[in-house]
Specification:
By secondary structure, this protein is mainly α. The protein contains 12 helices and no strands. Helix 9 packs across helix 10 and helix 11 packs antiparallel against helix 12.
Amino acid sequence: MGRYVVRRLLQMIPVFVGSTFIIFMMMYALPGDPVRALWGERAPDEAQMEALRADLGLDEPILRQYWNYLTGLLQGDFGTQIASRREVIDVISDALPATIRLTLLAFVITAVLGIAMGLLAGLRAGGKTDAAILFFTLLLISVPVFVIGYLYQTYFGVKWELISPTVQDSEAWDELLLPALALASLSLAYVARLTRTSIVENRRADYMRTARAKGLSRARAVRVHLLRNSLIPVVTFLGVDIGNLMAGAIVTEGIFNIHGIGQAIFQALNSREGATVVGIVSFIILVYLVVALLVDLLYAVLDPRIRYA
């Protein structure tokens, strides 16, 4: 197990370097001058612009800039904003709690409702319940999240007045319920369909017939054997989906006025604050990699036959 973890950690290094290199080049190598943008419509002061570029290290070759960024990351330095001269790590620290709460709530909704719907559809495959769940999940997959968010906001928040249409306090879990439902809609549909497919396939497996032949009740055979083995592909999807939920929060946070990571990225893109965008994306990439490792280790818990060398 220890050797496997070390090997996976070493594999993360080129993935992280390659991913951050691409986003860094997209923000700094493409046409456009973020320092010049500070002057807006006014005529820029060339001397001040050159001094600011030198201070931020933007006058160096692009590969050198990226190397400086990587070495700074090793010391916990995610860069500095150009306009406000604020540390990017402070921006992340302020915005991250709201996004974490939103992501966790959306993740719980995705896992609980998705697995429950998939299990129900799989156990009743070919029936009316299965058809209704498949139709519902197909509807969720077909509708973009910004449309779902707008519909939830209009009906649940404005017309029926069941909940506030916008988030006034991001620390209140009840106010985050509506945006979490919107954010989880697509993932919920995929989890339900994936669980249903896995349940249908494993119901016909030999170990299920053996379990019933040994006298296990249907409920215990489903809970102990069928569901546990069917969850392996679902866990894989859920692990990757944590990063997707954090990235997808950009649209959801904009709709429901949540001051989180998504809104910070949106504002940084509008003002061409490359350091903020690269810093936040680097953080999300780290979350992806760590969760992917934890998911791989969780396989051995779900299936004792899996061993890591």
